[in-house]
Amino acid sequence: PAAKPLAGRHILITSGPTHEPIDPVRYIANRSSGKQGHAIAAAAAAAGARVTLVSGPVTLADPAGVTTIHVETASAMLAAVERALPADAAIMAAAVADWRVAREGTEKIKKDGSGLPPALALVENPDILATVGQLGPARPKLVVGFAAETENLIANAQAKLARKGADWIVANDVSPETGVMGGNANTVRIVSKDGVEDWPLMDKAEVARRLIERIAAHFAP
Ligand code: C5P
């Protein structure tokens, strides 16, 4: 196999959580370290691809040899992804917050003394994977999503594949007892229209390398 099997390819990756501000000091977020998405970006660069990584707030360093764009919110992540297109493949590994508050407070919300909490009206965020998966001519040839589930892993991943227009879903069980969240290891299954591939437990860097290997094979002449 070629040392740089993805030379000449542009791979677009999202990673990390998004933060959706409630007011200047508070936000809504998903739990996500960004470790898996950042590892995929590094592996894609090592395979010779030009890599754009759109990252939410993480404590990780920007991977070497990767163009990293830092964003905070889902809306900003979608805008950055759209600006980064066209791409040969899009790998959407970010844990995007499903909702943001309808009206972000310009001042810190104070307890009003009534003992009643403030009502936060939420609105749904754009689905970045679904947007990219359902693009017309600008759709990347290969669109890969993730499905972190705590139950009905395969059924949920298959539903996501169809609903979001993805080619592959990397499904993982993130039940608390698995230690996947924030940890270094992952057990994933690759769900596509061709079926389900079970991968053994491995660290996130190895998941990234194998995923990039599979993508390179997909693009191989
Ligand atoms: O629906 P769910 O959030 O479980 O789907 C996970 C997949 O969809 C991941 O690939 C994630 O990056 C992507 N996603 C997204 N934008 C959203 C929600 C999820 O890109 N608003």
From TrEMBL:
Keywords carried by this UniProt record: ATP-binding, Decarboxylase, Flavoprotein, FMN, Ligase, Lyase, Magnesium, Metal-binding, Multifunctional enzyme, Nucleotide-binding
Residues covered by region (Phosphopantothenate--cysteine ligase): 11-221
Cofactor field: Mg(2+); FMN
Pathway entry: Cofactor biosynthesis; coenzyme A biosynthesis; CoA from (R)-pantothenate: step 3/5; Cofactor biosynthesis; coenzyme A biosynthesis; CoA from (R)-pantothenate: step 2/5
Keyword Iron: no
Similarity annotation: In the C-terminal section; belongs to the PPC synthetase family.
Keyword Glycoprotein listed: no
Binding residue positions for CTP: 98, 108, 126-129, 146, 160, 164
GO cellular component: phosphopantothenoylcysteine decarboxylase complex
Coiled-coil ranges (or none): none
Source superkingdom: Bacteria
Span within the parent record: 182 to 402 of 402
Catalytic reaction annotation: N-[(R)-4-phosphopantothenoyl]-L-cysteine + H(+) = (R)-4'-phosphopantetheine + CO2; (R)-4'-phosphopantothenate + L-cysteine + CTP = N-[(R)-4-phosphopantothenoyl]-L-cysteine + CMP + diphosphate + H(+)
Protein name: Coenzyme A biosynthesis bifunctional protein CoaBC
GO molecular function: ATP binding; FMN binding; metal ion binding; phosphopantothenate--cysteine ligase activity; phosphopantothenoylcysteine decarboxylase activity
GO biological process: coenzyme A biosynthetic process; pantothenate catabolic process
Entry EC number(s): 4.1.1.36, 6.3.2.5
